[in-house]
Design goal:
Elements (H helix, E strand, L loop, with lengths): L1 E3 L9 E3 L4 H19 L6 E2 L16 H11 L5 E3 L2 E3 L3 E5 L7 E2 L6 E7 L2 E8 L2 H10 L2
Parallel strand pairs: 3-6, 6-9
Antiparallel strand pairs: 1-2, 4-5, 7-8, 8-9
Helix pairs in contact: 1-3
């Protein structure tokens, strides 16, 4: 089933539910995510909380304060100092929308986009083709 996140301004963000999500997650999504981050030499990353997902449509200048509060709560709030170093956690979300992922990783050919804090990526959209999801679902029967 598809559920929506009504807290965001965009009417677009949805959650695609399948009966055997664990299989899709372990056979398709996590391998894609790991391959993507290994190519970037990023060893620590975490998915954004499912209810916190957003789309490019949420970057509305009229509602920027609302978006920034959401962005801060779920993405940059984890920034902390560890001794002399500042640690910036990397978060990501999987998207089925190609328009959220205008870049292609040269090493992996995975489509993605990123949100930067100064020059540092703090959030990634990682594209998974819904056709691949259906292919995995059909092959598992």
């Amino acid at each position: 089933m598809i559920e929506t996140n009504s807290k965001l301004k965009s009417q677009f963000v949805g959650y695609f539910g399948v009966k055997n999500y664990e299989r899709i997650e372990h056979e398709l999504i996590l391998p894609t995510v790991k391959k993507f981050f290994i190519a970037r030499q990023i060893t620590e990353f975490k998915p954004i909380e499912e209810h916190a997902a957003f789309a490019d449509l949420d970057f509305d200048r009229k509602n920027f304060d609302d978006f920034f509060a959401h962005f801060y709560e779920f993405i940059v709030d984890g920034i902390h100092k560890n001794g002399d170093n500042v640690e910036i956690p990397v978060t990501y979300c999987i998207t089925l929308d190609e328009q959220n992922c205008l870049k292609t990783c040269e090493k992996t050919q995975i489509r993605y986009d990123e949100i930067l804090l100064f020059d540092t990526p703090v959030f990634y959209f990682i594209y998974v083709d819904v056709k691949e999801v259906f292919k995995h679902l059909r092959n598992g029967q």
